[in-house]
Specification:
single chain, alpha+beta, five-stranded mixed beta sheet, 9 helices, 56% helix
């Protein structure tokens, strides 16, 4: 078990270093900073990375769709992605998602380990609320909880149901609030949660 734990922690550290290379080595941070204040959040900030998925909040109170497409063009030139997807949640206003503009950037097949980068441009008020939520999660993570979360996440990232019927937020809630400690327990927790909503 100790070897598995060390492996999970080492994987998180490795992927975060790769993220730093994209962010600072390839100057993604520099490009984003021309349009607002970038915050690298999610599993990167929580030190809970088991796959190559980087979440970025771009804090800006004055941002047009035209500017966002200009940013997209610059990111395309920088990273040469295989695919970029755009969302305008200022219009769609999907529950749970930021009221902002989104680029989903794919550097290859994410299910085979390629990087996916999510960039959300949003106003300062919403950005700070979401950063505070992330910080509250970080403050709750004990050493043992970190290992439980990493263990469960490492088994979920290729699951077709991930992002469709559950997310990393569910994993965090299951471990930090309900004491889930492994994949079998997490599956039961998901089923119980589904039953409650039926």
């Amino acid at each position: 078990m100790e070897a598995v734990n060390k492996s999970l922690l080492a994987l998180d550290e490795l992927i975060r270093k790769e993220a730093d290379e994209i962010t600072y080595g390839k100057e993604l941070h520099k490009i984003l900073s021309q349009y607002g204040i970038p915050h690298f959040t999610g599993s990167y900030a929580l030190q809970l990375m088991t796959w190559r998925d980087l979440d970025v909040y771009l804090e800006t109170d004055s941002f047009s769709k035209e500017k966002f497409f200009e940013l997209g063009k610059n990111i395309d030139h920088l990273l040469n992605p295989v695919k970029m997807s755009f969302r305008n949640e200022r219009i769609a206003q999907t529950p749970g998602l930021p009221n902002g503009l989104y680029w989903g950037i794919y550097l290859g097949d994410e299910r085979n380990g390629a990087w996916k980068i999510d960039i959300w441009a949003m106003d300062s008020k919403e950005c700070q609320q979401r950063i505070e939520y992330c910080n509250k999660i970080f403050d709750k993570i004990s050493n043992s909880a970190r290992l439980h979360i990493l263990d469960i996440k490492s088994q979920c990232w290729k699951d077709p149901a991930y992002r469709k019927s559950y997310s990393s937020a569910d994993i965090y809630k299951a471990v930090l609030e309900d004491g889930v400690t492994g994949m079998d327990d997490f599956r039961k927790w998901l089923q119980q949660s589904a039953n409650k909503t039926e």
